[in-house]
Design a protein that fits this description.
The protein is α+β, with helices and mostly antiparallel strands. The chain has helices at residues 6-20, 29-58, 108-113, 122-131, 137-148, 154-164, 168-174, and strands at 65-66, 72-73, 75-86, 89-100, 103-106. The longest helix is centred in the first third of the chain and has 30 residues, at 29-58.
Length: 201
């Protein structure tokens, strides 16, 4: 189990070596902060990759898997990779493919991980949904890069923002109040305390 994290341990060792280098003693606090930001992001990305690789190594072969199309897939091929852009950087997810001639492959591990259909993680999608309404798509992309170090293009930000807003109309349609009965009085009230009143001359 712990051998799976060999790369993470090596990455952590390299980080310590960099910080222990006598040359690091010449860095200002701001320079050290910048260096640690980059190195720690890479360490967490490698930890994430190692944990995904461990899950792949532990994945158990299942009985034939039947898709929503009703087709059972009995041929199993290990080692199918897909890329995933996360808030830590790019990682690869390796899993078993369940196949049947003429039918699309199924990947049960994707469902266990709740992977998105596209290559952007839920964390990046959530960050995009937060940043996109604050300005332009370019500004959102720049904010995501500042926060995570991950570079994401304007078009990808736009696509993620559109996907995030896909359920808005349905949400408001489901939460629209029913018309009030004719005997219900609707009243509007205003608080005028914030209005400056000038006395007449």
């Amino acid at each position: 189990g712990t051998e799976a994290f060999r790369r993470s341990r090596e990455c952590f060792g390299e980080l310590i070596t960099v910080l222990a280098d006598p040359e690091s003693g010449r860095l200002t606090h701001a320079q050290m902060e910048d260096q640690l930001t980059v190195l720690s992001r890479e360490l967490v990305r490698v930890l994430h990759q190692d944990s995904l690789d461990l899950r792949a190594a532990r994945e158990q072969r299942r009985e034939p898997v039947t898709g929503s199309d009703g087709v059972a897939r009995g041929i199993v091929e290990p080692g199918h990779d897909r890329g995933l852009a996360t808030v830590f950087g790019k990682v690869a997810v390796t899993r078993m493919a369940y196949r049947h001639r003429g039918a699309a492959n199924l990947y049960p591990a994707d469902a266990v991980l709740n992977l998105p259909e596209d290559k952007y993680s839920h964390g990046l999608a959530r960050l995009t949904a937060t940043e996109a309404p604050r300005g332009s798509f370019e500004q959102a992309a720049a904010a995501i890069t500042r926060a995570t170090g991950v570079r994401i293009g304007k078009r990808q930000v736009e696509q993620l923002a559109i996907a995030a807003a896909a359920g808005v109309d349905a949400y408001y349609a489901a939460h629209r109040p029913a018309p009030a009965a004719s005997d219900v009085l609707l009243v509007m009230q205003y608080d005028g305390k914030g209005i400056v009143m000038r006395p007449e001359a």
